[in-house]
């Protein structure tokens, strides 16, 4: 009697491949349509907000600004779109009894769940690349910080102030104080200053040498002076920018340069971890969708829209709270930035534990009967 059916196993593998391809393409289609819809809605809202002002001033709408903002908006709403896509696709599969058909052919809902988790990794990678490579370029095109008023940079050993910083290396009404090796302090004021060849060149000013006790030991007027201050204008300029305007590698370099000046920039450390943490919300939010793969009853599109919006915004509020607490040093940066991820992982582990416990109790009851 023949008990093995290798052709059936091959057929099952073939069906799984077909189903994987179908789910991936359906997910991609819904995800793209939802992304376009969210971005279009953003454009409409933004244009309606400024439309009265444009009509009054007789100006044209600058569509380039909204175009360059779209990558950042996409990154921000991507977890909402991902969760909505998962629930919508799952609701359609339940509606047409596709989950039951898969179970009959030997493909369990957990295998479908693993497909979605794989898609979550792919979406996370795409969102990370956009956030790291495209968003900083687009934001720098919109908000060009070529001239910055009131530069004020300080570290334990250096203080620099300027009424105006003209990128890349020019300063107006420049002031600086630098700690010297013998615990003395050099204070410099100049009308103009620039940086070249590794040195600061200051024009039309005055400098003082103060002793360790604060007494003036030397005072001198100058028309030109060249001095080596251990900081570059590029570092000062980048330290005034939000982390979103820099890539992951740029943030790492800036943090290392500021560390050399004995500075611990919390906002940049938070921004560095955000570069990885926020795209990963696309994966973790799929991780939280596990209970829906065990449902046998259909759920409406209204439920999909309302619940996905509610849960996504709840995660976003929790994420923003964690970031704020990390920036204000109320919690460690790692906990603050990854608070939502930890929360979702916790509830997922608890759900799996309860599921396994329920299965074991059902088996024991069945044996007793």
What descriptive keywords fit this protein?
single chain; 369 residues; alpha+beta; 6 strands; 62% helix; 17% strand; disordered N terminus
Structurally, the number of domains stands at 2
Strand content: 15-25%
Structural class computed from helices and strand pairing: alpha+beta
- Helix proportion range: 55-70%
Q: What is the makeup of the main sheet?
A: 6 strands, antiparallel
Task: Give the SSE order as H and E letters.
Answer: HHHHEEEEEEHHHHHH
What would you report as the Rg, rounded to the nearest angstrom? 29 Å
**Tally of alpha and pi helices:** 10
Shape designation: elongated
Beginning-to-end CA distance, first to last residue? 33 Å
Number of E-state strands: 6
The low-confidence runs, each spanning 5 or more residues with pLDDT under 50, are: 1-12
Descriptive notes:
This protein has 369 residues and is α+β, with helices and mostly antiparallel strands. It has 2 domains: 233 residues, no CATH class; 85 residues, no CATH class. Helices cover 62% and strands 17% of the residues. The protein contains 10 helices and 6 strands. The protein has a 6-stranded antiparallel beta sheet, covered by helices on one side. A hairpin with a 5-residue loop joins strand 3 and strand 4. Helix 6 packs antiparallel against helix 7 and helix 7 runs parallel beside helix 10. The longest helix has 52 residues. 22% of the residues are buried. The N terminus is likely disordered.
């Amino acid at each position: 009697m023949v008990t093995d059916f290798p052709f059936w196993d091959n057929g099952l593998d073939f069906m799984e491949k077909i189903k994987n391809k179908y789910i991936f393409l359906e997910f991609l289609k819904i995800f793209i349509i939802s992304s376009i819809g969210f971005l279009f809605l953003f454009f409409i809202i933004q244009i309606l907000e400024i439309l009265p002002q444009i009509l009054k001033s007789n100006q044209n709408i600058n569509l380039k600004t909204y175009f360059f903002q779209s990558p950042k908006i996409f990154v921000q709403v991507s977890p909402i779109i991902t969760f909505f896509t998962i629930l919508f696709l799952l609701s359609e599969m339940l509606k047409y009894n596709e989950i039951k058909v898969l179970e009959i052919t030997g493909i369990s809902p957990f295998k479908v769940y693993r497909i979605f988790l794989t898609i979550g990794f792919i979406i996370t990678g795409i969102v990370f690349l956009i956030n790291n490579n495209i968003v900083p370029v687009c934001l720098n095109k919109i908000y060009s910080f070529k001239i910055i008023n009131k530069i004020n940079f300080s570290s334990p050993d250096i203080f620099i102030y300027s009424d105006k910083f003209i990128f890349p290396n020019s300063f107006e009404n420049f002031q600086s104080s630098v700690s010297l090796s013998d615990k003395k302090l050099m204070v410099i004021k100049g009308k103009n200053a620039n940086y070249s060849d590794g040195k600061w060149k200051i024009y039309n000013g005055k400098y003082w040498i103060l002793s360790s006790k604060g007494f003036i030991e030397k005072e001198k007027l100058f028309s030109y002076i060249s001095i080596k201050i251990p900081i570059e204008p590029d570092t000062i300029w980048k330290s005034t920018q939000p982390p979103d305007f820099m890539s992951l590698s740029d943030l790492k370099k800036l943090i290392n340069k500021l560390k050399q000046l004995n500075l611990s920039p919390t906002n940049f450390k938070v921004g560095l971890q955000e570069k990885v943490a926020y795209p990963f919300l696309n994966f973790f939010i799929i991780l939280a969708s596990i209970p829906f793969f065990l449902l046998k009853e259909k759920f409406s599109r209204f439920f999909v829209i309302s619940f996905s919006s509610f849960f996504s915004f709840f995660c976003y509020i929790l994420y923003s709270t964690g970031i704020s607490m990390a920036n204000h040093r109320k919690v460690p940066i790692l906990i603050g930035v990854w608070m939502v991820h930890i929360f979702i992982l916790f509830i997922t582990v608890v759900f799996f534990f309860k599921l396994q416990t329920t299965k074991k109790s059902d088996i024991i009851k069945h044996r007793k009967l």
